[in-house]
Amino acid sequence: MRNLTYLVAMSLDGFIAAPDGGVGDFLYEGDHMAALFEEYPDALPAQAREAFGIDAPNTNFDTILMGRGTYQVPGGLASPYPHLRQYVVSDTLSGTPDDVEVVPGSELPAKVRELKAEDGLDIYLCGGGKLAASLVPEIDRLVLKIHPIVLGKGIPLFDGEFPVALFTKAETRTFGSGVVFTTYTKA
């Protein structure tokens, strides 16, 4: 069975983006970036992979699940992760490319369980906070890239109501940049 992994950057005060969805305040230089590129090249969108000359095979994920807001970031691509099977959760989105499947919110839990039952690599949960909150019972692993910044307001790591879920810390790594990668698995 495959895992659903929520891999996300966050501020010290628990936000994954500014109120407008922007992520420009996070650190994009430093030794943590080399680790990200080496360990999670499949979690990078096509434009980042191209800009950094990354042509590595998928090692962690073969499927991505994202919310409409993450999919439709300004300047985004119609098919941002062509190296993965792409699913966008939305009740209003239409007109996506053939390699991007839209999943209505009401069908999401069943779709995630179906994807997890398939053979293959893990499933990358790529923002946002509302989508993550709706999937807490299905999340098997959290990989939090904690940046040494305080945003004060923004989109929280989990935005909405969900049942209490217990996770166990599996690994923590601190980088010279001040960024900390902490991995948790479902208890």
SSE order, as H and E? EEHHEHEEHEHEEEE
Radius of gyration: 16 Å
Please identify, by name, the CATH architecture.
3-Layer(aba) Sandwich
Helical fraction: 10-25%
Question: From the helix content, strand content and strand pairing, which structural class follows?
Answer: alpha/beta
- The name of the CATH superfamily reads Dihydrofolate Reductase, subunit A
Query: Helix tally?
Result: 5
**Residue share in β-strands:** 25-35%
Task: Summarize the biggest pleated sheet.
Answer: 8 strands, mixed
- The total count of strands amounts to 10
Domain Bacterial bifunctional deaminase-reductase C-terminal: 4-181
GO molecular function, one term: 5-amino-6-(5-phosphoribosylamino)uracil reductase activity
Organism: Saccharothrix tamanrassetensis
InterPro entries: DHFR-like_dom_sf, RibDG_C, Riboflavin_Biosynth_HTPR
